[in-house]
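Continuing the batch. This is chain 6 of the set; chains 1 through 5 are on the previous pages. Same settings as before, nothing changed between runs. Recording input and output for traceability.
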Amino acid sequence: MEPTELEEKIFASLKALATETQPLRVPAPVYDELGMCFESFIPGKGLTASFSIQERFTNAVGSFAQGLVGAAFEAAYDVCALLLAHRPCTVVSLNVDFFRPLTTEEKRFQVEVRVRGKARGIVFFEGKAATTAGQIFAVSTAVLSPLPRGEADNG
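Output for chain 6:
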């Protein structure tokens, strides 16, 4: 799928942050794996992205793997933090609470993440995941910390 105009702008902003000592893969492979599409972005505030629900990522009862919802939150937080801090960040804490399972009857879901605050280089986030019909099925909080300049996040 071809990137949208918004995705092109986000990718250009991410590419501009790459340096010789800190190269960045843009778009990151995880975006394709999760079927991530950027829906909205407000610099310094947050973003919304949608993700595909793929049959290959279901469990024995047919529910979408909740760990991949966590991965979707992490992907969204990571982009938001990178654009806010102007350098790669690492996840210090990521919490996800689920209200109901997500089935393959849904084809996509949305993750909205927002910056809650910044202190001493640490960024605090909150997020929610919803069906395309707007039914919230999970909420999340996260803390991300910028890496020292030139240090890659290998975790």
